[in-house]
Every structure is written in structure tokens, then in C-alpha cells.
Amino acid sequence: MTSAATVLRVGVVGCGQISQFMHLPYLKRHAFLEIAAMCDLSPSLVGAVADHYGVERRFTDYRRMLELSDVDAVFVATRDHAQVSIDSANAGKHVMSEKPIAFNLEDADRVVAAAKANRVKLMIAYMKRYDPGFEYAVPLFKAMKGLRLIRIHDFGGAFAINDGIFDLMRGADDIPAAVVAAEREKMQADLVQAIGRERAHFAQTYSSLLHLCTHDATILRGAFGNPSGIEYADIYSGGHTIAVLKYGEETRCVWESGLQRDKVPWDESLTAYGAEQTVRVDFPFPYLHNAATTVHVSEKQDGVFVDRTVTASFDEAFRREWRHFYDCIVEDREPLTSGDDARADVQMLVDVVRAVRV
């Protein structure tokens, strides 16, 4: 794609929930984006989704899609993102990948290296970093005086409520069993490689951290930077995680997370406690289009504490991240949630799991 182009032609790899619910609607809606081709391992699923969006070119092998000269960028929404991202970059395509960038640091490094070697943009789809509520709160966090405690709290609820919100297109049982088995085996090996064989029994929890709590890692780092160390970490009660992160000598961060599949309400927040101010960001269920992220501020004014709640915007973070990706390509600038940035999130999660005593 040249700088003179006005439309970014995107090939989509992976036609499951996240693509159907949150990405394809904005790819279709934006005038500067075009769905050029689709790919999924399931022939029936890619056929149904491509028919719905009026996309003629559909594939079950993404490598064939990468041969299309008029595809400028690839959106990666498969289970394992790393190899598709690497192959896309090597084909000269810009890459927007769902999180995480990879299951382990070695593969993350390979993804980053491929993008840099081929001079293409690599962006990881951390929509919360583009959320207008979070963007409003970041300057408040950074300006906070006497920061003492940070609390990241993420107990996601049951995704089953999606059935009452969306009409999910499902494919037939037409992916070869051997392909599914090989994919699962590779994923398990990649997870264990990241955290070490002595912690292999934490692989499922580490996977949940990568797929859910990597959002918490990126917003924590986006607001406060990288922690200087991990004081404590524990995994308990079937995969719940608690950790105490160190931010210098005067500040600690308490991180608590777990997926509550039997609980409907979404419960996710980032709070910072300073000497004169407390700021909390409450995130809504992520698949509710245009649901506002609210910012709650308690601060001292004339000797008393005053509470206020800010709704910065109802603009959708998923929509905003696609605009950012497009702008980075046409203006030749580095995405906010770059490959290097996403690698640091994986590093943080690996460090948390490795800090758990075994």
C-alpha cells in the first residue's frame, strides 16, 4: 500500500467470536477500510461469514491469501497468532494481531523481528489502550502525587451472555481432527516453554492470563510503566491469581484476577491511591458496543474530599484502534501498542507465573 492510497484492504484470518462481534462490523463500517479476503480453518464458517459481509475471496489456508497482491494488511484472530503474523510480515503485509502477540517470549521476538525486517507495521489489538475513558485517566495517574498503592482487579464474568447479544455464525464440524489436535499440542508446548516444566501444571492459568489479563498488563504499563520487581505471586482455587508488584521503594501494585464463568457481571478496574487523590477506572463488559468506561475521582478540595464521575465518551475502543492502525500506516508512525510493547506484556505475565513458589 502506498501513501497515496485512501483505502486499506484487509485480509482477515480467523472468523470466530472476536472477529464477528467486535472487528468485522468496524472493518465494514469504516470508509477507509475494506475487507478484501477472509480465511478460517473451517470451510463452512468462512463461507457463512464471507457471505454475510459480501466477501468473494475466502480461504482455509492463510498462506494462499497472503499471495494476493492487493491485500495491504492482515488481521490475525486465530488461536495462535505468532506464525500467521510472521508469515504475513514476510509477505510484506502490515499486521494487526489480536492479543497476545505470542505464547512465549521466543515467538514474540520472532514476530517483532519479522515486522522490522520487512518494514511493515505491527500492532497488537489492545483496545483498552484506545478507550477514551482510559485515555482520560492516564494523565491523572501520571500526575498523581504521593502514589502509594495501585490496584488492578479483573474478575471477568460469564461470556455466555453473548448469546443474548449477538447472533454468532457457527461452522460445521469440518476442521480435521488431526489439525485440531496438533494445534492444541503445539499450544501446550509453547505455554510450558514460557513458564518452565516445573510449572507446567500452571499452563492453563498462564493461558488465561495471556488471553484475559494481558489487557491488565498493558493498561498497567500504559499508565505507570514497567514494575521494578515482583514481591509475591500465588495461583490458587483453580486458576485465580494474586500478585504484588513493586514500583520503586514507595509504591506497590496489588494484582488480582480470575475468570468467574458462573458469574454474569463484569468486574474489572484499575485504581491508584495517592496522597491527595484516588482515581479508579471501571471497564464494562468488553463486547458491549459503545458501553462507556467510567472514571471515578476522589480528591481533596478546600480541605474536604470531593467525588466526581467522568464519562469521557461513548466512542467504541475497537473502532478507535482500527483508526489508529490505519493512521500509523498512512502516516508511517509506530503504533501505540507495538510489537515491542506487547512483548513486555508477555514478559510481565511470565514473570508473575515464575514468581509463584512450587
Cα radius of gyration in angstroms:
21 Å
| Number of separate structural domains | 2
Order of helices and strands: EHEHEHEHEHEHEHHEEEEEEEHH
Q: Please tell me the CATH architecture of the largest domain by its name.
A: 2-Layer Sandwich
Chart the SSEs and their pairings.
Blueprint (H helix, E strand, L loop, with lengths): L7 E6 L3 H13 L3 E7 L3 H11 L4 E2 L2 H4 L7 E4 L5 H9 L3 E4 L7 H14 L3 E3 L7 H12 L5 E8 L20 H19 L7 H22 L4 E8 L3 E8 L3 E9 L7 E7 L3 E7 L10 E8 L2 E8 L5 H14 L8 H16 L4
Parallel strand pairs: 1-2, 1-4, 2-3, 4-5, 5-6, 7-10
Antiparallel strand pairs: 7-11, 8-9, 9-10, 11-12, 12-13, 13-14
Mind explaining what this structure looks like?
The chain has 358 residues and is an alpha/beta fold. The protein has two domains: 8-126 and 319-335, 3-Layer(aba) Sandwich (Rossmann fold); 129-174 and 196-316 and 345-354, Dihydrodipicolinate Reductase, domain 2. Helix content is 37%, strand content 25%. It is built from ten helices and 14 strands. An eight-stranded mixed beta sheet has the order 8-9-10-7-11-12-13-14, with helices on one face. The protein has a six-stranded parallel beta sheet with strand order 3-2-1-4-5-6, sandwiched between helices. Strand 2 (33-39), helix 2 (43-53) and strand 3 form a beta-alpha-beta unit. Helix 5 (105-118) runs antiparallel to helix 10 (339-354). The longest helix is centred in the middle third of the chain and has 22 residues, at 203-224.
